[in-house]
Amino acid sequence: MSNIFLYLGNKDIDYRSLMRDQKNVSIAGKTIAISQMVICEQTHSNHVHICSKEDNGAGFKDHPQISVADGFATNIAEQYLLIRTADCYPVLLYEKNARAIAAVHSGREGSRKNIVGQAVQVLVDHFSCDPANIIAHVGAGICQEHYQVSEELYKAFCDSLDADKFSVCSNKHRHLNLRAVINQQLLRAGLKFINIENIQICSYENPDYFSYRRDQGNNRQINLIGINNE
Ligand SMILES: [Zn+2]
Fold it and tell me: Which of 119, 131, 134 minimizes the C-alpha distance to 4?
């Protein structure tokens, strides 16, 4: 995967510093300019935006973020899709033959609305990707044990997921397993089990990660995917 740049971040490079400094960042041996990155609004929607060259730099300086989107896809080289998270799950997807990528923010609402399924559909419809060749990386997020919700939220979540097709309703009441939901949605979208990689880290448990539930802060880790121009 030499032509795909993929980064699932922790506190090392944080979103607030990136916004404050508005400077190029050095990540995993690569320098990425802010004019090469794209940020979307992340409004807990299931909308996946298809990027154009004009989207380069969205979210920086006076270029607004991509509005009402929680995911995006592109086949433009050297355009880096940025997803910020702190308990919600970042999901990065690519298909090497079609040279197309996608990045998704999947929290409770995004997972309920199957945004990863939407992202796969966009890759198939717009970039002729074969789901069987799509590789997915699911990053750090809050685990089931630490994601307790009210009875009401739990019921609403399970009801809207068509629960008998999903094993989200575990024997632990009022806990949501977003990672399990996302993995099942990826499988249902046609991805192969062996092509789904999970970074098995709970952001709430691991102090190297931002966790909204733990800290109530406004900082986030950043996650990036791009196609290297080589
Ligand atoms: Zn945990």
Answer: 134
